[in-house]
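In response to reviewer comment 3 from the previous cycle, which asked for concrete evidence that the modeling workflow produces usable outputs, we include below a single protein chain processed end to end. The sequence was submitted unchanged, and the resulting structure tokens are shown without manual editing.
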Amino acid sequence: MKAVGFIVNIFLPGVGTLLVGKVGTGIAQILLFVFALILNFTVILAIIGIPLGLGIWVWGLVSALTARIIPE
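The workflow returned the following structure tokens.
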């Protein structure tokens, strides 16, 4: 499941984190990534939005790979 979460997070940050079971972290990543995208639509605030978006993307990849899978 970690591999699927990692691959999904490459394209949609936060969704892969939701898939591995980290609901709160995944929702935070999605909301912050959308905020970064909104900032990127303005020329001046893109200075903040681009690094924020990249940071959230990396955070999503790392959080999907480091998730603890608890067997049921």
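The chain has four helices and no strands. We consider this sufficient to address the reviewer's concern, and the full set will be provided in the supplementary archive.
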